[in-house]
Write a structure and sequence with these properties.
globular, 9 strands, three-stranded mixed sheet
């Protein structure tokens, strides 16, 4: 808890520089690097995402994530709870699922860039390999149009996990995704779901499982 209090005290002390960096683009790279270092001080496995406000009346949002790592949940929630007194800034514990995916479904502004390559979310497809009805955990195949060109990249799977957390949320990712396997999308391949359909598909699986238990009773 002491590290978390220190983090927010430092944040308050430098809040004007932080706001200038996010809102006005002044010394942004250096300020973000400083925030990353301070998050590392709380936990080296934790990361933060800063979202600029959509309008002048909105707040800057800083999202804290442990990439689904269960042991960090207490710290992440504490970071959110201790930020309530900050003006013009809100803190969010964990990556939440996409609320409005219409633009993604239509392929608008849905490219996620990772260094020298990017992935278009609307082009990613999935297939269920296994579902454990007791643990509610899935093993899924994810199909990428350019997998053969990208498969040598060490961080490819990490970046796919990152996209998936944004689609279903960090907590659901930790709880329900047991394993992910990556594949090349094949021409004319049938029976696949768009990756944005995964939340509804998971909900369907959970409901089917619940109905079966009801019948047994």
């Amino acid at each position: 808890m002491k590290k978390i209090i220190t983090f927010w005290n430092n944040f308050k002390k430098n809040k004007q520089e932080i706001f200038n960096a996010i809102l006005l683009g002044i010394n942004t790279e250096e300020i973000l690097l400083q925030i990353t270092r301070k998050v590392d001080y709380v936990s080296k496995r934790m990361r933060s995402i800063i979202n600029a406000p959509k309008s002048i009346n909105d707040k800057i949002t800083i999202v804290f994530t442990g990439k689904g790592y269960l042991k960090l949940f207490t710290k992440i929630i504490a970071l959110e709870n201790l930020a309530h007194s900050l003006v013009k800034l809100s803190a969010q514990a964990h990556i939440k699922p996409i609320e409005d995916n219409i633009k993604y479904q239509h392929g608008l502004n849905d490219c996620c860039s990772f260094g020298n390559y990017s992935l278009k979310i609307s082009e990613l497809q999935i297939a269920l390999l296994d579902y454990n009805s007791k643990t509610k955990q899935l093993i899924i195949n994810i199909y990428l149009p350019d997998y053969n060109e990208l498969k040598h990249l060490e961080d490819l799977k990490h970046n796919i996990n990152w996209i998936l957390m944004q689609i279903i949320g960090e907590i659901a990712f930790r709880k329900h995704i047991k394993e992910i396997k990556l594949n090349q999308t094949m021409l004319g391949q049938k029976g696949l779901l768009g990756i944005l359909e995964l939340p509804d598909f998971m909900e369907y699986l959970f409901k089917i499982n619940s109905r079966k238990k009801t019948r047994i009773v």
